[in-house]
Each structure stands twice: as C-alpha cells, then as structure tokens.
Design goal:
39% of the residues lie in helices and 21% in strands. The chain is of the alpha/beta class.
Length: 97
C-alpha cells in the first residue's frame, strides 16, 4: 500500500490532515511507514492511497489550498478499501500457487 500526503509549503491545513491520517492508520493497525510526505505544487493538503485521492479528485493540479479537506471518514474508507484489495490479491496469489 502506498499513501502520499501532499502539500504546498506552509499549508495551514497540513497538521490537521496529518493528524487524521495518522489516527486512521493507528485505528486500522497500519504502520506510519506506509506514508510518504511530498511538498510541491499540489492541491493542499491531499491524501492519496495507491494513487487515488481520498476525496475523489485526481490528486494533481496547481498549488492551492483545498476547500474539500480530507475527512477522517474518507481517509479510513480509502485505507480499508486498499487493505481489502491487498488481502484479496494475496489470497488469490496463494490459491494459484
């Protein structure tokens, strides 16, 4: 699983987004090591799970403050889906040995 926390320098909403992301990972028993923080020209803050923006956007675009901040519910849903997909893929690979 790949999780990216994207932001622009000085983003005032980065700390709350980071907090929600870390809380979601802890709730699901996932390590913080899956998170890569990237600073650049992005809608900020954005959280992508396996390349998909948790808020349904594309995760790319020009540097700007987001109006649709990542919510705890959307972060958890995206992480649960990624975990479920990874579990299904692992089970499928095991069965095809």
């Amino acid at each position: 699983m790949a999780v990216e926390l994207r932001s622009v320098p000085g983003c005032p909403n980065l700390a709350p987004a980071r907090h929600e992301l870390h809380a979601a990972l802890a709730d699901l028993g996932l390590p913080l090591a899956v998170v890569t923080e990237v600073v650049g020209d992005y809608p900020s803050p954005s959280i992508l799970v396996n390349g998909v923006d948790v808020m349904g956007g594309i995760g790319d675009g020009s540097a700007a403050c987001r109006l649709d901040l990542p919510t705890a519910e959307r972060i958890r849903a995206a992480l649960r889906q990624a975990v479920g997909t990874a579990w299904s893929d692992a089970r499928s690979a095991y069965r095809h040995r």
